[in-house]
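re: ur question from yesterday

yeah so i grabbed the chain u mentioned. its 335 aa long if i counted rite. heres the sequnce exactly as i have it in my notes:
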Amino acid sequence: MNEKGFRAFLTESDRVPKNLSHEAVLFNIEAVRDFEEYLKGRSVERSVEEAGEEDVDGYVRFLADKRQATEERLIALFRYARFAANRKVEIAILKLLDGVSVLDQLSETTRHLLGDSKHKAVLDGIELPKLGDSSESWHVITSKFMNQLEANVDQATCEEILLTGPHAGPPEWYEEERQAYLRSKNIDEFLRTRHEMAVETLTKHMEENTLFFNQEIDQDVVDFVRSNQEIMGGIRKGEIIYETKIPYMAREYLREKDETMRRYYYCHCPWVREAIRTGHRISPTFCYCSAGYHKKPWEVILGKPLKAEVLSSVLKGDDLCRFAIRIPKLASVNP
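ran it thru and got these structure tokens back, copy pasting raw so excuse formatting
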């Protein structure tokens, strides 16, 4: 472990949240040191820099057995993987963290909105996965959750629960976008600038050979996003903003010819992705969870609750996921 270099990365890099506390820096270093000790005890000893997905999965199971598996520990390893340019570990941790708490949060939302009796009926027989559990069978849990949710409440209530966007993060994630919107002449200018900045971000990832979340970016991906302002930007028509999701694995999506695998590479949701590949049926209403993810930034930007609709989704058999976010009339004119 290169502790000196990692410490500098944690305090100076623009790929780490600004102003990490001294305690947070020490925690990150200790978490990586603990992973290093774990690797020393493996049958094939490897350094942190040489570790792969199998090592990460084994370590998380090891932590889970001791009830020490936490997102904070995995984020620390993720940061070291970025520092050390260990893409295998970086991707492995992203896979483990991706959406892991979504169904837990939807469960709590169901309890809050429907009460204990209905919550018990909706979650009957469902064991929610824990951090470190493989996501390969999550689609089976999702299918059962949706079947029981739809059996107990009407369509509008299903959508209300899912639109809470449990994976959208806290409001502070979108404060910079809100400030950029307030500096704009009007919402249309903001949308154009938002898209241009997204294209610049993807271009930077391509040029620096770094990951955009889980995926590698090439010129085809940059051109694909640049060609459609709805992707990572948005287009307003009247009082509706239309957004189209960037594919989860855009490079693979653009190269794939098989329609099923194209939809599989497009889908971001670990709770349904395998269902697309295997043909396991899940109610497409679940995609309102993704609509909630797209709605949340606009609720922060505009400072009020909004409505959103799923227009198309790969879970329904469409080639892409597209959403409509309804905005207040005045917001369609200027900030």
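noticed a couple things. The first helix runs from residue 3 to 12. also The chain has two domains: 3-97, 171-332.
anyway ttyl
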